[in-house]
Design a protein that fits this description.
The protein has about 200 residues and is of the alpha/beta class. It has a six-stranded mixed sheet. The relative contact order is 0.19.
Amino acid sequence: PPVTLRLNFGERVAIVGHNGSGKSTLLQTILGTLAPAGGDVHVGRELRVGSLAQEHDALPRVESPRHYLATLANLTPFDAGTWLYNFGLTRQQLDRPVGVLNPGARARVLLAGFAARKVNTLVLDEPTNHLDDEALAEVLASLNDLKGTLLVVSHGRDFLADLRLDRVLRLDRRGLVEIDDLDTYFTETADTAAAVVAGWGAA
């Protein structure tokens, strides 16, 4: 179905839905990596968008965090090191290859990169699929302090419960529908899945 979504600056919105409902496709369309099947996508001129999944996958494993951030944000090595240190990296981690850092430290590298580039809109596509518990904790703390816009697709019940949100939307055959209560949604989803499994067993 046609999908209409308006996000005002500073809004914090989660999208939920069954696998295959088109959530990731919607995010890719908003990010411009996929052309819309119809209609238009308009992004504010002042927005600086960051995608956690895209940038996590693109982290150069052989570069040091200092060199990566200096190149990414056009900083001097000293300033890049200061940004990273302020985001919790140790002095030893600044010049080690990204690939040997623990997941939490890699998450801090990404978050420092977003801050140094003044990213004010973050898009997350199933972060619980890409990050371990340590990295998720780092990301969650920063997201709850974010002053800009947040758009997240997730099936992680605990992650969404701990995330500060203004709206939760469900994507289904009717399009995007606002839901009032996450617990009710997840309970109904679990009940539906259990009924389907039970139906298979009875067949």
